[in-house]
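re: ur question from yesterday

yeah so i grabbed the chain u mentioned. its 145 aa long if i counted rite. heres the sequnce exactly as i have it in my notes:
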Amino acid sequence: IDFKSLRIRGATFFSLIALGLGYLWLLGVMNFRGIDFNVANILISPLLLGLGVDNCVYLLNRFRDIRNQIPEDEMPSRAELMTRALSSTSVPILANTFATMIAFGSLIFAETPVLRFLGESATWGIGFMALFSLTFLPSVISLRR
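ran it thru and got these structure tokens back, copy pasting raw so excuse formatting
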């Protein structure tokens, strides 16, 4: 609903692709590390998707705000607008990501295997969600006509 005001066709779709790629990479790392799905990993999925959605919403809303501040006759390219949006939102998004990764990463030192797997899965997943929110989504939006 929020992305309708962006006037970018496919913004929701591309945000979902970014989230899907982050989740697929998490599944790949879990397979590589031998971490099976359990109740803890399944419970962490909504949190990961929620944080990924937040990242996409913050970035695209900032893109819209910057675009709305510039007169139509002075409008730069979409890539320039996205660069400006990234420059003002990437640090807060990364700070939030690292703080959350540290919080869940502390579970890696737990003695209970389920908590260790939860901490490791959450840490990888949060990182991948931020990675694709800050790389894939801006690239695709910048290249759209």
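noticed a couple things. The mean pLDDT is 88. also The chain has five helices and no strands.
anyway ttyl
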